[in-house]
Amino acid sequence: MTNRTSHTADDVKQKAKDTAADVGDSARETAQNAAGTVRDEAARHAESAKDGVADEVSDVASALRKAADDMRNGSPQERTFGQIAGGLADVSESIRGKDLGEMANELSGFAKRNPMLFLGGMALAGFAATRFATASARRDEEGTEEPSPIRTASSVHADRAARTPAPGHTPATPPAPGGTS
Questions:
Q1: The domain containing residue 132 runs over which residues?
Q2: Domain-embedded: residue 129
Q3: What is the pTM of this model?
C-alpha cells in the first residue's frame, strides 16, 4: 500500500504542477493582453496628440498667410510672413507623415547637432505655449475673444490716417496759458 500511496502522491504533485503551470501561463497571457491593450491605447492617444499639434501648426501657418495677404504686396514683411507660413505648413505635413518614433529620433539628432538652437527653440516654444495658455484662460474668463496681436499694414495705415490732418486743414492751436485766444 505504500507503493500505491506513493504513486497517488506523485500523481497529485504532478497535477498540482500542471495546474500551477496552467495558471501561470494563463496569468502571463492575461498580462500580455493587458499590456498590448495599454500600448495600443497609448499609441492612439499619442497619434491624436500628434494630429492636434499638426493642426495647431497648420492654423498658425494659415494665420500668418492671411496676415501676409493683408500686407503691402512685395513688402519685406509680406515676404517674411509668407516664407514662415510656408515653412510651418511644411512642418505640419511632416508631423502628419511620420510616426512618433521617427520624430523622436530626428529631434534627438537635431538636438545633438545644434544644442543651442534646440534649447533656444524649446525656450521660444515654452514662451509661446505660456502666452497661448494665458490668452486662452483670459478669453474663457471674459467670454470674449482677444484682438489679434498681429497688426496688418492696412490697420497701421488706418491709424496713421486718423492721426494725420487732411491737406489744407490746420489743426486748432490751444490757447496760451493765462491768455485768451
A1: 100-140
A2: yes
A3: 0.46
